[in-house]
Structure formats: C-alpha cells, structure tokens
Amino acid sequence: MDLGLKGKRVLVTGGTRGIGAAIVDCFLREGARVAFCARDGAQVSAQVRSLQEGGYDVSGAALDVADPTAYGNWINERAQALGGIDVFIPNVSGGSLAGEEGWKRAFDVDLMATVRGCDHVLPHMATSGDGAIVVIASIAGLEDFGSPGAYNTIKAGLVAYASQLGAAGAPHGIRVNCVSPGPIHVPDGFWGGIEREQPDAYSATVQRQPFGRLGLPEEVANGVVFLASPAAKWITRTNLIVDGGFTKRVQF
User: Is 233 one of the catalytic residues?
Assistant: First the structure.
C-alpha cells in the first residue's frame, strides 16, 4: 500500500532511540524527507551519518526541547530548509521521574514541548492545507497503570490537547491524532531496564499480554506513520491504542 508520503517534509522530536528512531526509519523508508532532534549530539551525528549513507534525505540536530528558544529556532530553520512542514511528530518524553522534579520535567518536556512545537509548526502547515500531527501519548494516561504520577497524568492531558487541536486545525486542513503505546521493549529503554533490574515485574507484565510478549518500536511506528499519511486523510481527533490488547477496557 502506497501511503503517499514520498517527498513529504517531516519533523520528529526524540529521534535517536526506541520508538522515535523507529518512526524516523519508517518515514524514510516511505520516501519522506525527515529532520529530527535529540539531546545527545553524538547519537544524532552517528544516526544521521548512517541514514545518509543509506541514501535517505535526513538531517538531525542536538537540542533539548525544554529550551523554548532553541526548539523554536530549530523548527523554523527546518521549515525554511525543507520549504515547509507537512508532518510533525512530538515524541520526546521526560520519563517517569519521582517527586516534584518529575512533575516539572513531565510538564516541560511531555506537555509544553508538544504545545510549543505545535504552535510553531501550525502556521507552516496551514499554508499547505494538508498537515498532520501525531502526538505520542501512552496507555498510562488511559487506565490505572502503575502508581499515581506525572507521566500518567500528563499523557492523559496530551490526548485531550490533541483532540482540541484537531478541532481547531480541521478548517485549515490539519489533522491531529494520538498514538498511545502499551509496554514496548527497547533494550536501552524503560522496559529493558525493568527486564534487567526487576525480572519478576517484567515477567508479570509479559504474562498480562495476550500475545505473550511486549511490543516492538517498529510496531508503534507503523501506526504513527499511517495516521500521518494521506492514506489516513479522513482520520482526525482519534487516539490509536497500540498495545497488543494489553488494556482491558472496552473502547467505544
């Protein structure tokens, strides 16, 4: 199936590891032109070099999306270099730090970086009349999952924000959707750490999965890229659950 993404101009935050890296790869395989950012400059440089050697049209920048000035400058510079923006994927998360510092980090990185990023890309998308934003949320924001904390709360807020933004963007031809992953195994990520440090907890989570395993980053990326593509042009303000049936609620 041709998703119609060839030549589309795509921005992805947090594109060097896990789900973000898989999203970058998936867009590039579909023929899109991709710019991504992440905090680790060495990882950014290594990934850009590897992807460019594969013949892909890709660029990367080292920055912290919690820095409003650097973040806004990057978006505007990439929009100018690419000649516009068709797709925006705010993927970066501040993680699940404990205490008040965790709340501040989740607010600044998960919520406000998404809001600021959308504020910057919307004017560029409005000129094309065919923009798409896919916000990365989590099933942690949809049901009782883990202890009360900032990560769960902020992810729930992102789902509400995306729906409201979708309503505002529709008259300008801009679609906004969410993807909420379940437990996804990334060796150097959260669940990889749980597997090493808390094997019993990891095993219990796997046992809860109807398919008997955790998800893979590319399985989330496939859903993200589809929703961002013209193939999904009549889908907006929805929240796609990518969890292999992990959640037990009935979705209406």
Answer: no
